[in-house]
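Consider a protein example.
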Amino acid sequence: MIAATTLSQSCQAVMRNKFSIPTLSLFSGAGGLDIGFLQAGFDIRACVEIQPSYCATLKENLHSLAGFGPTTQILNQDIRNFDTRPFRKMGIECVIGGPPCQTFSAAGRRAGGVIGTEDERGQLFTSYFRILQELRPKVFVFENVYGLPGANGGGPWREITSAFSKLGYTLRAEVVDAADYGVPQHRERLILVGYKTGEFEFPIPTHGPDSANQSALVSVEDAIRDLQSANEPFHDKLGGMYGHLLPLVPEGLNYSYFTAEMNHPEPVFAWRSKFHDLLYKVCRSEPCRTIKAQPGKFTGPFHWKNRHFTIAELKRLQTFPDEYELVGSYTSVLEQIGNSVPPRLAYVIASSVRDQLLVQKRRPEFSKRQPGFQSTFRQRQRLRTKEFEKRASAAIAERYGAIRVPAERPKGKPVESYFFTPANLFDRSMVSERGEAKYTVAVAERKTHISIKFKALEATQKNAFSLEIKGLKKYLPHFDTLNVEGTADKLEDIFHVWATIEGALKKRSRFFTLIDIYGHYANRGDTVKIAGEWGFAESGTILRAANWLTSSENCGDFVDLKQFASLVKVKETSIPSLIEKLRKIRFDCRSSLTHPIIGEGRLICTYPFPLLSPRALVESRVTFSQREDEFAQVQA
């Protein structure tokens, strides 16, 4: 097992003067991949990075023991503008780096789909290809997300590997878990090694069950033990909507501890209603899950004492040297750490490339995988899931006892009514008199059914609507169905109706939001079904679109724009303005105009209801009028 001090010392063992392999770093980020190659004896002549904040970190570490040498150039520029001519006489033997991965990543899929090389970021590999073609290094190391080979049916991956092969490189690719190479973090990355001559085999894991000596994985506590205070208390001050839940989460678990699927007697989340990092608390005796670049307030990993990790601790978990300076605000430094390749993993790969392809040592520092080797880290993931279920059961038994007492029916009024007048979408001011109100609401319970009457007092009868929700019983044990009917006056009333529904459900459960009950669109198990039909004074296209979207069957997956245009009887060139109207009332309707990663020709609406939280970003980040002409040209 690698102790924290040994881990830090290994990151400081810079060996570049021993071998001095001329190397070019592309998409350098904060330098995680570079540090590992420097430690293995590669002389990085230049780092090419477009982000000024990352370049500030790279420059801060020039001339330092843990960083770059005096000859390293830090080039803050777009790789598409990179001029290779000054480097052609340097004898560059190795090129390293991986293009931005959003277009192929799991996060990208959840955000709206993966279009891979159709997106301009996915096309950055062509600049990588150009640089290899012009410098002709002996070897290159291309790093990216583990989902790249399977994205879009493997098409982008075949395009990328075919381009590299045409330059005369033999390719070896492998998805590895950084924890198997001494990193106290489970982090899966795709490593592609291309070489002109020789043979290359990936190194056998240095840690874990697949390692030659069965060395234990490096745990979180191993990595940061000397940074801990024995007198530090357990914390309970995270605050916010979910902060009070964190102290209750057992080590190694996340929000799913509070689900019916984990047999929690008082569930507050639907299964897969959130990303798996929500309220994720590390198990100190194991590696942690992947550190994220842009975490939210409730996004883990959290320390076992119920707090966020410090920067010094996160550097250890990512295996950055203690002496390596990360420049910028707390948020910027978090992003730099989360977007980096762990230097320890980079060192193992770099040493293997050095010993097998460039220096060709008889006894390489890291043993090669033998024919027939099969990694088991994916199987171990499934075993960890079973272990998490056991931990949840033990924690529930300790807190609630072995005998489950059925939850009492909520003691709220079985019939309630009120008036309100909204100042805006998020401010529902209650009023006591009908004459002061714009809306009236009546909620009634009958057995397992919730009935809501909603009336816009300025509306006419022809603007009647009705909605129905089924499948609530799994999450609201005393209620299974809900229906709401009444009259609406204008398009914005859709938002107020759904805010009323959310309020009624929250009063009758321990859930916090409507999405917590419905489930996240990218992962939900389709337990809750929604259908309805709206009527407004505003009729025509917007009414047809709203009615089509107010169905769980039509949301959460992609639809072809031509198909959508036909279904709602609208011209394709009018879709941008229609999406803009829908987003103004906070329907999370996405196309290439709002989320370029989606690509042209398709659309997705994530939920059959508006996003009710003011923190949810729904308003478009682009000006529709600036791109409508472009959109029309593409569709034509």
